[in-house]
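Below is our example:

___
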Amino acid sequence: MTDLKKEDEDAVASTPFGREMRKFFPFADDYMHLNHASWGALPTAILNVQRQFQDATERRLDPFIRYELPTHIVAARRALAALLHAPLNSTVMIQNATTGFSVVLRNLPWSAGDTIFYFSTIYGGCEKSIQFTAETTPATAQRIPLAYPLSDAALLAQLHSAITATRAQGLRPRLAVFDTVSSMPGVRMPFEALTALCRAEGVLSFVDGAHGAGHLPLNLARLDPDFFVSNAHKWLMVPRPCAVLYVREALQPLIRSSVPTSHGFRPSVRPGEKVRGSPMPVDETETAFVANFAFVGTLDTSPYICVPAAVEWRARLRWEGKTGEEAVVAYGMWLARAVGRRVAEMWGTEVLSNGGCEGQEGRDTLGECCMSNVRLPLDVASIAEKWNRGDVDSTGAKLVIWMGKTGLEYGTFVQTYYYVGALWWRISAQIYLELKDFEWGANVIEKMCDRAEKGEWMGKERSKL
């Protein structure tokens, strides 16, 4: 019912990466998708698999949802566990990375003095989850500022110093949160070394791998984090929304409920109290952790069960003698770096890199991923002064929103962001893109910079000056 078409296998394997791969994706002819990192993109073949699952559900609702779906969910978990080199019983399906983060924060028992550490480059939704936790529990939060470019050693030293200072104050360093690849700026963090540091210091580690599965080679058995989450709908080319949550087996008793709490929850029972049973079929062999996430209310879980098909489709890909995941990641990393250098040359600006930082020995670890970041040829401070906008940061934020929407006039969306006093373009490399596409995007951004200089970003406010 949901098999990929075998006759397409040779076509996928023989097609060069770049624009020619677009024929396998359902993109509109008049739109250039340059922002893979935000929403991902799925091949038409996987979209068809999802629709087959949805049709199968609608044809026989109860039989499919109650009895067939659980088998497909296990297959999806198995595929992700294999990809991540993680134990099957430590992985469960969830909607997105932010949900997984909320699950952990809301389940961990917090005591007075417990401190959550996170870096200023954290994803905004996760920072707000921490702030909510600090407002509603005895825990406190400590934000560690990051101003790239920064060496890996300097970044590690900042977390170590924060942990040491917290202990000196008589507080308990409880949890540290950090990314595999942060969202904005789109840079690789030294998450392996950060995880090891947490283990050595007795601090729980939460690795936010929202940009993880399908983006970087990951081995959770070797990494050994306490908690890990990754979206599958971004870089793994699975329909939205789809993600995986990993919890170390020893810590699973702490994760007593899904979010929202549903039929899988096993409450503590007082003498004489009865526990309501589940209306859904229950697999008695499942652990309490896995059972918690088996059925979390009525959801469209068709994205989850497309994971095996997505992994199979990607296994057909070929590039420079590499196959499957290795080919996808290698091309993405190569293209991201090539594009970064070329766009910086076109604009006369710079790539966000830590290769020149002391201790890096010329190695740009920030760029060891499928994203690159190039500074725009636009002086935000000068723009703010020219148009009597005293707050430079506010001007930068408004320019980001304006550029995002204005890009649609050219048939694309460009993900810019404001960081350390400048505007940057976050470049997302993928198999359906090539250097020429980003050169075109750079020209679009340059045109928008010219328009910004003329005050178009101010809209109606401009006419009042």
